[in-house]
Amino acid sequence: GQKALWAGVVCIAILLGASMSGVDRLEILAEENFYEDRIVLRKQTPYQRIVVTKHRDDTRLYLDGSLQFSSRDEYRYHETLTHVPARRVENLETVLVLGGGDGLVLRELQKYPTIKKITLVDLDPGMTLLGKTFPPFVALNQNAFQTLPVEILHEDAFSFVARRAADPKGSYDLILVDLPDPHHESLAKLYSTAFYGFLSQLVGDGGVMALQLGSPFFANRSYWANIKTLEQAGLQV
């Protein structure tokens, strides 16, 4: 009767638990086979899957399976994104960074002693925590989170710029948009006319903005569509 029923419930619970642990092992095995290098960190946040791999002197960050940087050549990207626009600003004091939770853009901003405040907006606290505490990232970003006057805000970049665009005191000397490619709908809004329109209101007089828009070689149509969108928002590109 009732004992048999409870025994059945317990057996089902045990079987479910075993199957769940089996699924976890299968996921880990699949992940090990997906990445060519040894995985040194895997973390599922409410927003994304973070995986870090290591091979000799090469550390790589993947978000949802998409490569974000390789430590062997990331300097080419982060130096260009930061210094090309920063050198065009005469009096660089305030900076807005959208994304960049790994701290690598911050590392480059360390080279500008005139900066008084940096606002870094990254949706995922799990990412900025790694930037601040994960030893391979701390080494790569040269402990930039601790050495710079940076304010970290964990919120949606679209909501942030929409709110700040309504504030007449919300402009910045330099805006660096270091966001992932628009792989899905929640990211696509960060490449829209509305988003760029808000950003255009946040660029101060004499200010400059630089954005990551993918590759004009490998994603030609997407790249030039983004350029048109920026121009439609009233920005000089």
Task: Describe the model.
The structure is a single chain. With 237 residues, the chain is an alpha/beta fold. Helices cover 45% and strands 24% of the residues. The protein has ten helices and nine strands. The protein has helices spanning 2-34, 74-86, 104-109, 125-133, 135-140, 144-147, 157-165, 185-188, 193-202, 220-232; strands at residues 38-44, 49-55, 58-63, 66-70, 94-99, 117-121, 150-153, 172-178, 203-211. A hairpin with a 2-residue loop joins strand 2 (49-55) and strand 3 (58-63). The protein is elongated, with a radius of gyration of 22 Å.
Question: What is the typical, i.e. mean, pLDDT?
Answer: 91
Q: Note the quaternary state here.
A: single chain
Number of strands: 9
Radius of gyration: 22 Å
DSSP helix count? 10
Distance between the termini: 76 Å
Characterize the overall form.
Answer: elongated
Could you state the order of secondary-structure elements as H and E?
HEEEEHEHEHHHEHEHHEH
Largest sheet: 5 strands, parallel
Helix share bin: 40-55%
Give the amount of beta strand, in percent.
15-25%
Helix-and-strand structural type: alpha/beta
Biggest sheet, strands in spatial order?
Answer: 7-6-5-8-9
Poorly predicted sequence stretches spanning 5 or more consecutive residues = none
